[in-house]
Amino acid sequence: MADLAALSESIKSALADAVTGAAMARGELTIEVKAADILAVMAHLRDDADFKILVDLCGNDWPQRAKRFDVVYHLLSLTRNARIRVKAQVGEGESIPSIISLYPAAGWFERETFDMYGVPFEGHPDMRRILTDYGFSGYPLRKDFPLTGYVELR
Fold it and tell me: Lowest-pLDDT range, 8-12, 93-97, 103-107?
């Protein structure tokens, strides 16, 4: 726990312009960053803080906020025996840079987030739907998506 608090302070001092917030909850560190700076933050975490493994990348919908979506990255450091969560807010119609160049495993995770929430990843080499049909209308994990969908099955 003390190691994560120290890590939080070192990240905030190294990336002062990119980090908008940091919080410790239930023994886990969450860093909030500007979407435009996600590549710099992730490169720092991988190269300088030793978070070499991207465990997950997902989205979250907050329709009442001006920047509606959270793109959430979960990283693991085996040498530190620690996990960290990085969140970036993205507005509807905005994009966020792809982190495939840093974490190649992000490819399918980014496509899934695009498919379910409609958040495009700038610089992704294959930004197309991965879970729904290519002709599917809408984004099923958005809070405003109707429970019955947009088409009627017979």
Answer: 8-12
